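Hi there,

I know you've been waiting on this one. I reran it after we fixed the sequence typo, so this is the corrected version. Both the input and the resulting structure follow.
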Amino acid sequence: MTALIENEVRKEDSLTVATLLISGTCIGGGMLAMPIQVAESGFILTFINLFICWAFMTFTGLLLVEATQWLKNETHFSSLSRYLVGDWLKIVCLLVYLFMNYASLVAYTAGGAALIKHWVESIANVSLSYETCCTIFTIVFGFVVFLGARFIGQLNFLLMMGLGACYVVLVGFGFNQVEAQNLIPRSNFIEGVSSFSIILATFSYQMVIPSVCALLKYDMKKLKKAVILGTTFPFIIYSLWVLIIHGSVPLEGANGLRETLDNGSAATVALRGRFNHWSLNILADGFAFLAVTTSYLGLSLALFYFIKDGFREIKIELSRNSVILLTLIPTLFLAILYPKALLQCLDISGGFGDTILSGLVPIGMVWVGRYKKKLDATYQIPGGKWALIASTLFFLFILIQNCFSLNLL
């Protein structure tokens, strides 16, 4: 979604546009995965964790605003890394970005395939294999990516309007279904720390900060507002969404949150079982499909240009078709291998990609700029070294916790 919005608004100098760029980057397929991945924690603990992640991710976004003052007129995250720390950090940023993008695309391909399979079985009473549905999804939306940024930008605007309308209706109706007993805490804080990974993925926007700074012409007052408002809107939207999912769908039983988690399904699958009405089921499926496709199209286009520019830097010119294949085929292959990727890959992306790229890297850049190179800045986020150290410990904790959970340490 990020690349689409950037292309459409690059010439604008508007606080509203910049705020929507940040919010739009955060809101996407995480709407489907996050409420299910944190089901064991319950709403109250999830809300607390959402607030903590919002605070730290807003902080690192403001750190990047500070860092861009030292290298104005440069709208690429990797260039900031190279200038402040060195070529090795640029390479780390590029590799982590590639990992995050592919992981997210695999998740959305798996989610889209599950929806196609469900619809074909429900409407035509025909059973298609998961692998076939992954292929259909990739061919259809891969062709849309082939049509280019302008077409995707126009299509994505319509899809986002539909996504917003579905969200409003589902949340409005869902409030009537919320039951207090479903909101009782299900685990303690220590057990709930594993949910930080997927929540970080829902607040991933830092890669667009250099572009936002250029859009607002490095006006620090506007940039602070854009970052704070741009992350606060997703915090509110996600909080309401988790309240509806956790409050209306019980943890246990058929179509419960735990069963949905075990199946690797989307949050709307749990809602579909709870509502049990054809019109609301269609609305829930429509919301899921729009969330998946808007995220898939934006990330596919961003990855397309990333691969194209990467090969161009090493003096290799690839055809458009070759770049499309490099974008889509690995994604399709991995999605077929991991049917539960909608939940698993976004969790891994947050636990490893966002802890490094959205957390540790901005902290490192500002530390070097402030205290090693002693660069002057008209704006410096409050907190000094202690705030940077506390944030470093937070992101390192999540990174190490994920390494243990995957038996990497």
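Quick highlight: Residues 1-13 have pLDDT under 50 and may be disordered.

Best,
R. S.
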